[in-house]
Every structure is written in C-alpha cells, then in structure tokens.
C-alpha cells in the first residue's frame, strides 16, 4: 500500500475547472463494459492554467481526445489514481474518454457491479471514479445524459437518472435506452441499473397537480413484497409537501431493490437504489421493526431529493449538511406516522448505545470532521445521528415556524448549489434574526458534553435556582474545548404532579420574561452557553421537582442532584413523556451500576423492591400507550452501561442485566402472562400504531418470561411460535426460546430454517439470532455457520448478520480467552480482500479496546496489530485499525 494520504478540510480549494455537460455511453458486456464519456469543460471562477487532474481507479484507458484530437504522449499521464492533462486548452473545451471496466469482478460493491445477475451502481462517496475518469468531487455539478446498450434478453430493463428520452432495438438481440437528467448534479448521485426486473407502478399527484409515475423494481417474484415500500414512498411525498412545502421535481421516481449493497440505500437522483432488506416486506416475512425501518429509509432517501440533491455538499467534510438534516427529517416523518415519544426514545437509545461510545473513543470526530483518509469511514453515527441532534436543536431554539423559515431561506439561497454547514447556519440565523453565538461549535468540537445541574429552593424568597456547569471531554486532536450552546428544555413539577406556570427567570443579573404572548408557559428553553451559569425562577410557591432536558433537547450526558424519590416522582407524573421514560432509565442505570459493583465484589445480587414496583405500575397502567410501556420496562442496553463504566466489564454487565430481567420476570410473572394473553390478536396483520404497539408490548413481556427456567413458559412460547400468523410474533417467540440452550432451542431453530430457507432476508434473521446468542463458547457455532449454505462472505447483509451479530454479543465477542477477538481478526483480513467497506465496518468493533481490562486489551491489540501487518491492506481498514491503536 502507498502511504495513505490524509485529506484536510482546511486545504479545501475551489476547482480550477468546471464541467457543464456529461454524455455517458455504457456498452454493457459479459466480460467487460465500455464507458465512453464526453465532457464539456470550462474554467473555474479564478480561470486557470494549471493541469486538469481527473480521478480514476481500476480503469483501463482506451482512448482520450481533447477537442476531438488525441493528445501527445507527454501531454498527459495516467497512474493508479489519476489521469492528468498537463496543459488543457484555455476557455471551454471537450474531453472524450473511453475506458474499459470489469463489473463482474467488482466485489467492492462500489462503482459499477453485478448483483444477482443485474448491473447496478453505487457512486457515493467516491465510486464514480471506478466508472470513468472524472473530477469526482461533489462541487462539480453538471448535466448528464446516459446512453445504455445491452443484451435485450439478459437486461430487458435499462435505467438511469432523469427522463427516458429515447429507446430502441439494435442488431444482435441488443437494445438501448437514453436517459437525460435536467438537473445539475454531482457525480456521486449518478446511477445506472440494467437487468431482469419488474416494477410495481403507482402515481402521485403533487399539490400543484403534476402527475408523478412511481416505480419500484425488483425480480418478479418479489413484487408482492413492495406494497409497504410504495405506501411509504407516497406517504413521504405527501409529508414533505405538508411539512416543508417541498414537491417532487420530475415526472418519474424509480426505486430498485438489490440484494448486494454495502449500506442501507442511496438517494441517486430519481433512481434510488436500495438494499432489498429495506424494500421487501410481507407480514409473513418481515417484522414490525422491518416495516418501520422501510418507512424511515424510503422517507430518508426521498427527502434527500431536496436536502442533498437540489442542495448538495461543497466537499465531503460537509456530509452532515445533507445527512444530519435528512436524518432529522426522516425522524420527524416517522414520528408523525407513529408515536412521537416512542420514536424519540428509540432515537435517543441509538445515540447512547452507538454514538456516545464513538464520541468517547479513538474514532471520535466532530459532526463535521477535520480530516479523513477514506471518506467511506465517515458515514458514522456521529455525522448522521449527532448531526440530526444538531438540526433538532435549531428547531428547539427557533420553534417550528422559525425553523421552517430557515429552511425556506436555505432553499431560496442555495437551490442548485454545493454548500457548507455555515450556509445552513446562516440561513437559520438570518431568517430569524437570531443570536446563536457559539452554536457552530457543535460542528467543530467532538466529544459528548457533560452537563451538571445543581438545584436549590429558597422557601423564603420563593425562588428556585438551577446551576449548570459544562465540560466537553478531550478527543483525538482536540484537547481543550470551549463551552457549547446547550438548549435546555425545562419544566417544574409541583407536588400535585402538575407543571407549574413559569413567567420569569433571573439570569445574567437581569429578570427575563419567559412568558409567551403574556401567558406563562409550562416548558421553557434555557440557553446554557457558559462554562457555569445560573438560572433563578421566581414566584415558585413550593420546592418543585425539575424536569430537565425535556424531549432530550441537547445531545449531552447530564448529571443532576435529583434524588431517587424525585426520579420516581417524574416517572409517575412528568407531562413530558420522554422524561418519564428517562427518569426510569436513570434509575435503571444507577441500579445496574450498583449491582455491577456488587457482582465484581462477589456480593449476592438483590433487586430493590421499589424498582420492581415502579416497573409493575408502568406495566399495569392501562392509560399509557402500549409501545411506550414496552420502552419504559426495557432496561438500558449492555453497551450503554459499559459506556458509563470506568473499566468496561462485559461479564459483570451481562450477568447483572440478565439477573434483573429474571427477577422482574419472576416477580411480575402473572402480570407478564396477562400482558401476553390480553395482547394477542387474531386479526390480519396491519402496520399501524395501535396494532404494532400491542404486538410490541406482548413480545417484550414474552421475552421477559423467556428468561425463566420454567416449562410452563416454554410451552407458552412454543404455542406462540406455532400459532403466529406474522413474522413479528413468530420471531419474538423464537427469540424467547433462544435464550436457553438445549434440545427445544435446537429443534426450533432447525424448524425455522426449514420453513424459511428460500427467503434470504428471513434466513439473515436466523443467522443474526444465533450469532448474538450469549451461550458460552458460541464462537464455535458461529464458525460453523460460516460454512453453512446460507452464508456468503460476498453478501454484506450476511456478514452484518453473522459477523456483526457476533460482535454485538458482549460475552462471546469479549471472551476472556480471546477467541472472539481472534475470530474477528481473521474475518477482517479475509473480508478486506473482497470488500474494504464491509471489512472496515467490522474492524470498528475493536476500536474501543482500551475500555477493557488489561488481559482483554492485550488480546484485542494483538489482533489490531495482526490486521495492520496484513499484505495489501485497504485504506479503509488501515484508517480504523491505525487510529484505534494510536
Ligand atoms: N447517502 C446514503 C448512504 C450511503 C452512504 C455511503 C455509501 O457508500 C460509502 C453508500 C450509501 C444515505 O444516507 O442514505
Ligand atoms: Zn442519507
């Protein structure tokens, strides 16, 4: 490997040359594909006499012409990454480039490749350079046409971006299609699909009355499973019009589902390409979680049409400009389609389980990274999920209508441009005349801020004070940090459990009004911007219980002086449902940490009865939303607890979580059984909030019961399994039975495979379930599954299910004998040869190795060193492995 080059945001330069139009022609063949491109080039703003450098990887140059003439040999050069024209003509000129590529051999699934016999592309972030020589960077925006020629029987369907302007027959059983995209776009949004596909067709009438044809393409046998995807697409189109006033801008919108795809999906202009698992669903084969994910991701990709495509990123450091914003939009969409509180809870759990650990480890980076070696490594939970939190904070600070004004101004200013996070900030600020002083630090400082809150009530003065102090922990390359702008949504509960009316607060030596239109409020948003800051509420008749950070108004770790009694009070009374859940989680985290300490000191574990009563009262509260109950009785994840420990102890955390689950299950057995029985349903599967919530609660209750060694429960779970009429219920029963090793488990797993072996998406669930099992020594079973006919190292979904699933089992991945680490080390080296992006995602499981005890540290470190020493290592894996070790 050449020494990998680190690329820095501070080195960004505007391009010297711009592209006006690009005409591409693909001759798709069985051995090779010929790509001809004609590009109209013109000088950039500055004008230039510098060389024109085009990116190109794994390409064979067949011919090159500049303004129709072949350049002399010493006028250009080609190396393994670039084609350089030393002195291009001044003014406008054309380039004609012909290259040869080999999609059949492309296992990286980047550029043009084959999936199940069909051609498809993936160009984000830098895959277009594997198709032809180009300035492969998002600030090069051009108009494209795409001419495709291929065998008619093998590839009856030929698709690209924009409108189909011509198609016809050719000699030798071939045919062609010409597509034209009327919008300028960066190369990463280019797409081509050719193959044997059929479509589900529908139409959407936009609010201005235009008719848009919608087509979802899959192999014929999968078409019946696209009903939900089509429903989701139409719902997303309507939602974007209603909430943001954004209409679709072409007459055709295509979605193609492919089984081999590195990520979830891709927002190519008018030709979204999806991992099949995020398109295909039927009640029999997909769970409620799958249905919800499809809704969210179809929405996400569709929303990119405005946030990403019409307005794109100037450079890849700005990725969160489109991703943070589009995740925020898909979160809001899913909230509006289901339960807002439950969606918020799920998103915050994801943030805590995956993003907080990243932000505290060697791969910590700001929402807008300062540097990268391989951009593919920065499609992270920080850029996506923390980025979405940053967008949410604008809305919290500016209100829904202020946020909408900011969005309108953003599109008014930047439609058709490639812009930066500052441009988004400026639109929000200017549309609202807002003072948002140090808000931009959210883009540049990594690390999760710690916010500490101390409260005091003065009965005489009738004032209630909250003192905030904040600290942002150091992260790689950033040792000293400045205080952040933290919006803290807050309410104060009186002893009657109701929100107190709030009208004014002392802050910075002034009495500030917080009333709105002269009316007191029940929730106010405090703007915490300094290292230490006090807010004093006046006219507070009794000591309140503060409900702080309502709706999780900022992505921080909060510590407060709330007592357990305060937390139980909030759990029972808070008008902010998110904070009701949060109070329960804080109690559970405290409990788990104290039991972990007991476990480590070999003390017997006991569960305090107040916690059990708290859970019982939530479980039996008929007034609550069932999906909310499910969330509220679910303990924090093991990853979340390990993340808040000094030294992460996977065995102790697993033992404690298992212990509490079992205690709750035996203490609440009757209530849980009643919950299962009263929430069964015989009606047909419908994906709506009420039905989903009922299934969720029933299945969480069943999972609790499954932790008991109790033949009655085994009978119950077997009954649920055999009578289930949909995958949600069937799989939940399988999960309940999966907890206890033995013949019943083996039989039921075999039965499930026999039933579903023809359906690769269901088989992946079966692989993942076994991979994640906490049965001691499970690594051997996982190794065996590598040879199972259902497994294939070339298919990312299967790797994520089996290898990724295994890394999520704390006890087996972190096994003290190092067997889990050794397995992952071997897999990474093998995978890297086929698909560096997938290998790099897998190697990330090692990155927090310093959080564990010394024995584990040494074992994990040895694997990282072994990986780094491997021959021909990709830049992707190199970046993660080397940063993890540093
Ligand atoms: N932009 C897509 C996801 C995506 C990102 C990177 C990829 O390759 C490195 C592929 C797809 C989205 O946000 O949906
Ligand atoms: Zn996206």
From TrEMBL:
Query: What are the residue boundaries of the Peptidase M1 membrane alanine aminopeptidase domain, all occurrences included?
Result: 230-440
Q: What class of enzyme is it?
A: hydrolase
What is an example of a GO molecular function annotated in this UniProt entry?
Answer: alanyl aminopeptidase activity
| Gene Ontology CC annotations of this record | chloroplast
The chain positions of domain Peptidase M1 alanyl aminopeptidase Ig-like fold read 447-560
Q: Per its Swiss-Prot or TrEMBL entry, what cofactor is needed? A: Zn(2+)
Instruction: Please give the CDD domains that the UniProt record associates with this protein.
Output: M1_APN
Q: Which InterPro entries match?
A: Aminopeptidase_N-like_N (IPR045357), Aminopeptidase_N-like_N_sf (IPR042097), PepN_Ig-like_sf (IPR038438), Peptidase_M1 (IPR001930), Peptidase_M1_dom (IPR014782), Peptidase_M1_pepN (IPR012779), Peptidase_M1_pepN_C (IPR024601), Peptidase_M1_pepN_C_sf (IPR037144)
Q: Which domain of life is it from?
A: Eukaryota
Where in the numbering of this chain does the Aminopeptidase N-like N-terminal domain appear? Answer: 50-189
Q: Which residue intervals define the domain Peptidase M1 alanyl aminopeptidase C-terminal in the entry?
A: 564-885
Its EC number is 3.4.11.14
Q: Which reaction does it catalyse?
A: Release of an N-terminal amino acid, preferentially alanine, from a wide range of peptides, amides and arylamides
One GO BP on record is: proteolysis
> Is Transcription included in the keywords of this UniProt record?
no
Q: Which residues form the signal peptide?
A: none
Concerning PANTHER family, the annotation shows:
PUROMYCIN-SENSITIVE AMINOPEPTIDASE (PTHR46322:SF1)
Protein name per the record: Puromycin-sensitive aminopeptidase
């Amino acid at each position: 490997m050449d020494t990998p080059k680190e690329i820095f945001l501070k080195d960004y330069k505007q391009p010297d040359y711009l592209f006006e139009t690009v005409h591409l022609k693909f001759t798709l063949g069985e051995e090779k594909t010929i790509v001809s491109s004609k590009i109209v080039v013109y000088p950039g703003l500055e004008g230039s006499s510098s060389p024109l450098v085009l990116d190109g990887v794994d390409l064979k140059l067949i011919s090159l012409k500049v303004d129709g003439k072949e350049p002399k040999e010493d006028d250009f050069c080609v190396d393994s990454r670039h084609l350089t024209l030393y002195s291009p003509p001044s003014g406008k000129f054309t380039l004609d480039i012909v290259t040869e590529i080999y999609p059949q051999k492309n296992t990286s699934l980047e550029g043009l490749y084959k999936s199940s016999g069909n051609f498809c592309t993936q160009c984000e972030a830098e895959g277009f350079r594997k198709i032809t020589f180009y300035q492969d960077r998002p600030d090069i925006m051009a108009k494209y046409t795409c001419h495709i020629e291929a065998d008619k029987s093998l590839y009856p369907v030929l698709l690209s971006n924009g409108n189909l302007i011509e198609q016809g027959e050719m000699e030798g059983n071939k045919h062609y299609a010409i597509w034209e995209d009327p919008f300028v776009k960066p190369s990463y949004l280019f797409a081509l699909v050719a193959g044997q596909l059929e479509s589900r067709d529908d139409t959407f009438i936009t609010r201005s009355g235009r008719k848009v044809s919608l087509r979802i393409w899959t192999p014929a046998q999968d078409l019946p499973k696209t009903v939900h995807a089509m429903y989701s697409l139409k719902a997303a189109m309507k939602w974007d019009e209603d909430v943001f006033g954004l209409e679709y801008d072409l007459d055709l919108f295509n979605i193609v589902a492919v089984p081999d795809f590195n990520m979830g999906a891709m927002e190519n202009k008018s030709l979204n390409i999806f991992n099949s698992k995020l398109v295909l669903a039927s009640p029999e084969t997909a769970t409620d979680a799958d249905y919800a994910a499809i809704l969210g991701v179809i929405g996400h990709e569709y929303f990119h049409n405005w946030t990403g495509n019409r307005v794109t990123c100037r450079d890849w450091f700005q990725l969160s400009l489109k991703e943070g914003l589009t995740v925020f939009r898909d979160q809001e969409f899913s909230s509006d389609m289901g339960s807002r509180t439950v969606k918020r809870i799920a998103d915050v759990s994801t943030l805590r389980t995956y993003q907080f650990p990243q932000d505290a480890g060697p791969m910590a980076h700001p929402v807008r990274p300062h540097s990268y070696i391989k951009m593919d490594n920065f499609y992270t939970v920080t850029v996506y999920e923390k980025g979405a939190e940053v967008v949410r904070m604008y809305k919290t600070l500016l209100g829904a209508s202020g946020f909408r004004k900011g969005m309108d101004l953003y599109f008014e200013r930047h439609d058709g441009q490639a812009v930066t996070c500052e441009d988004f900030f400026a639109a929000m600020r200017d549309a609202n005349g807002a003072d948002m002083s140090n808000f931009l630090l959210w883009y540049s400082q990594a690390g999760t801020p710690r916010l500490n809150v101390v409260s005091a009530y003065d009965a005489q003065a009738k004032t209630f004070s909250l003192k905030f102090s904040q600290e942002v922990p150091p992260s790689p390359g950033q040792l000293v940090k400045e205080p952040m702008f933290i919006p803290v949504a807050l309410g104060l509960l009186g002893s009657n459990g109701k929100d107190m009316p709030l009208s004014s607060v002392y802050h910075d030596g002034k009495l500030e009004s917080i009333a709105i239109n002269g009316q007191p409020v029940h929730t106010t948003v405090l703007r915490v911007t300094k290292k230490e800051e006090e807010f004093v509420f006046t006219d507070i008749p009794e000591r309140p219980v503060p409900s702080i950070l309502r709706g999780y108004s900022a992505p921080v770790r909060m510590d407060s002086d709330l007592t357990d009694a305060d937390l139980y009070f909030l759990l029972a009374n808070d008008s902010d449902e998110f904070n009701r859940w949060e109070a329960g989680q804080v109690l559970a985290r405290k409990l788990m940490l104290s039991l972990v300490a007991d476990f480590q000191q070999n003390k017997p574990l006991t569960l305090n009865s107040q916690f059990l009563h708290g859970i019982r009262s939530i479980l039996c509260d008929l007034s609550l939303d069932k999906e909310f109950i499910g969330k509220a009785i679910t303990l924090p994840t093991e990853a979340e607890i390990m993340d808040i420990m000094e030294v992460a102890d996977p065995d102790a955390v697993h033992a404690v979580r298992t212990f509490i689950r079992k205690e709750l299950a035996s203490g609440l057995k009757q209530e849980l059984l009643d919950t299962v029985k009263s929430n069964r349903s015989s009606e047909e599967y419908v994906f709506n909030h009420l039905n989903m919530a009922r299934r969720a609660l029933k299945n969480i209750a069943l999972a609790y019961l499954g932790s008991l060694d109790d033949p009655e429960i085994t009978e119950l779970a077997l009954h649920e399994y055999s009578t289930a009429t949909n995958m949600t219920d069937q799989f939940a029963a399988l999960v309940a039975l999966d907890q206890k090793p033995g013949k019943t488990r083996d039989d039921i797993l075999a039965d499930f495979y026999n039933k579903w072996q023809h359906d690769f998406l269901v088989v992946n669930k079966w692989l993942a379930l076994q991979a994640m099992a906490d049965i001691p020594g499970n690594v051997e079973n996982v190794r065996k599954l590598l040879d199972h006919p259902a497994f294939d190292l070339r298919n990312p979904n299967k790797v994520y299910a089996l290898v990724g699933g295994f890394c999520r089992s704390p006890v087996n991945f972190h096994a003290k004998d190092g067997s889990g680490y050794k397995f992952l080390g071997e897999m990474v080296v093998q995978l890297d040869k086929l698909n560096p992006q997938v290998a790099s995602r897998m190697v990330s499981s090692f990155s927090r190795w310093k959080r564990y005890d010394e024995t584990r540290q040494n074992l994990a470190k040895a694997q990282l060193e072994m990986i780094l020493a491997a021959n021909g290592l990709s830049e992707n894996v190199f970046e993660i492995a080397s940063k993890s070790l540093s």
